[in-house]
Amino acid sequence: MAIDLESDTVSRRIELMKFETRHLQGALRLSQEMGWPYRREDWEFAATVGEGLVIERAGEVIGTAMWWNYGQAYATAGMIIVTASAQGGGYGSRLFNGLLEATDGRNVLLNSTEEGLALYKRRGFTAWSTVLQHQGPLTVAVTQDTCDDIRPATILDLTAIQAFDQRATGMPRQSMVAELADVGNVVVIERAGRVAGYAIARKFGRGYVIGPCAAESAQDARLLILAQLSKLHKQFVRIDVYAGDELGDWLHGLGLKQVGSAIAMVKGQRPQSDGPAHMYALANQSFG
Fold first, then answer.
1. Residues 286, 36: Cα–Cα separation, whole Å
2. N or C end of the chain: which has fewer CB within 10 A?
3. pLDDT tens by residue, 254-274
């Protein structure tokens, strides 16, 4: 149900409501205003696998916030935008209050810009890492390492990929992984007859994004990323990695320069990986 946040005139009516398909174009305009390269299809995918809120002013979308619940303990949040003409009016706080209510006491993870840090710190979020955004046209001719352990995934691998993702992230993301695998190209690394890592490449933004990429070592992550890059020569490629994993210089050497960063934050307890499984590259900075 819409919530009337202002009542000065009908034409100035401001409403907080659930994100619906009819809001996609307005949300796209907001991200374009921010200089984010999202396509309408990227918004549509995010809304399909998650949930969101919008604020409308006289029928125009002026703010968005989205979240993705993973089981009863965890959620991620992102795509939190308020149009420049409405900033300072408390709309970001209203959206974020609704988001926190909807995540229902879960531990919430997000990746913050410098502009959002103050808001999130006030809400009890603490920083735990830095996410590095690497991207650019892939002009280097990358060849896949001649590794018999890496192969294209099949539908029969999905359950094993989902299980590995849960070990790497500490969160039950089976539905998200299935949706990403459905729209992307998936490779796995197989060791002793078991899936020991995977990477997905899919269309996103200005070209393609590689992520998630989860593996048991940085070397295996590089092998999986190379397997995906070998199919993307002359395409625009984006990869978001954690600073502590030291993949940045390697990606830079492949021509994928660091163009930005975000602060990884959590409200509550961070999920813990199981064993050597580790997430090296994010699907995107919103849903991890």
1. 12
2. N
3. 999 999 999 999 999 999 999
Per DSSP, the three-state class of 277 is coil
Backbone angles phi, psi at 279, to 5 degrees: -90, 120
Residue with tokens 């320069």: 257
In this predicted structure, what is the pLDDT of residue 12?
Answer: 55
**Measured CA distances, 202 to 75, 163, 237, 271 (Å):** 23, 21, 10, 26
Q: Is 121 exposed, middle or buried (0-12, 13-18, 19+ CB in 10 A)?
A: middle
pTM: 0.92
Domains and CATH numbers, the chain: 3-105 (3.40.630.30), 133-281 (3.40.630.90)
Question: Residue 11 has which token pair?
Answer: 């034409």
Q: What are phi and psi of 107, to 5 degrees?
A: -70, 130
